[in-house]
Amino acid sequence: MRVFFVFNIFLWVVLFLAWLPYTALMGLADPVSTDVRFILSVTAALLILQGFVRHRRARSRKQLLT
Fold first, then answer.
1. Which among 20, 27, 56, 65 is least buried, having the fewest CB atoms inside 10 angstroms?
2. Per-residue confidence at 1, pLDDT binned at 50, 70, 90?
């Protein structure tokens, strides 16, 4: 599961780094730029949520072991 998490973050960073120069050339109002910005935002929110869930699960596991 950790491999998929790292791979997902890697793909997000690659998409973000490819989106920056495209947005600089085409502008923020471009339809593709708007779609990519939406995808990046939703994915970032889901990755943050997944991080909180994993942290909470690990913390509760530690409490069960002690």
1. 65
2. low
Largest Cα span, the chain: 56
37: which 2 tokens? 């910005």
Q: Which of 45, 41, 55, 43 is nearest to 2 (CA)?
A: 55
Q: Distance between CA atoms of 31 and 34, rounded to whole angstroms?
A: 5
Structure tokens at 64: 């069960």
Domain residue ranges of the chain, discontinuous segments joined by +: 2-65
On the CB side of 5, CA atoms within 13 Å amount to: 11
Using the 8-state DSSP alphabet, how is residue 9 labeled?
H
Q: What is the pLDDT of residues 20-61, one digit of tens each?
A: 999 999 988 899 999 999 999 999 999 899 889 988 888 888
Question: Residue length, the chain?
Answer: 66
